[in-house]
Write a structure and sequence with these properties.
The chain has 154 residues and is an alpha+beta fold. The protein has a single domain, classed as minor pseudopilin epsh domain (minor pseudopilin epsh fold, 3-Layer(bab) Sandwich). The chain has 1 helix and 8 strands, in the order H-E-E-E-E-E-E-E-E. The protein is elongated.
């Protein structure tokens, strides 16, 4: 008399193959989440550049964007009245889980004057650079003195 069902070896093979497939899927999703986090942070920064310039022109007062690279955050505020326009915190406890943020300008800050022009003399060129990294994935934002920006994965 034959018994229907699976042998223990067949079940072990199926469970092992399923575990291997799931581990590959998890690794693939980890890369997706890192890319997504870095890209999202770069897009937020590009929006904040435009918001800072717009506020400077509208309020007729300087606006500063300050990066705090060691603690993974930046702020956008009016220089004379200290009105907060935006504050972005990154890292495990922040809005977006990033491993590094940086702005390649002297003093890690950018100031839009009351006319909406940023002083780019500390940039070492015509464009300023901000980078947002999550694991091995880095997105770079190049921007000019008018707040226009370009985002690329580097």
């Amino acid at each position: 008399m034959k018994r229907a069902g699976f042998t223990m070896i067949e079940l072990t093979v199926v469970v092992t193959v399923a575990a291997i497939v799931m581990s590959l899927g998890v690794l693939s999703f980890a890369g997706f989440f890192q890319r997504n986090a870095a890209r999202h942070a770069a897009r937020l920064f590009a929006q904040d550049l435009l918001a800072a310039r717009s506020f400077a022109v509208r309020a007729q007062e300087p606006v500063v964007i300050r990066f705090y690279e060691a603690t993974l955050w930046y702020e956008v505020e009016s220089r004379s009245t200290a009105t907060e326009i935006a504050r972005r915190r990154f890292g495990a406890a922040g809005e977006i889980d990033l491993s590094a943020v940086s702005m390649d300008l002297a003093g890690d800050s950018l100031v839009f004057d009351a006319r909406g022009m940023a002083d780019m003399t500390g940039a070492g060129g015509a464009l300023g650079v901000a980078t947002f990294s999550s694991g091995a994935v880095t997105y770079t934002v190049w921007f000019n003195g008018m707040g226009a920006s370009k985002i690329e994965q580097t």
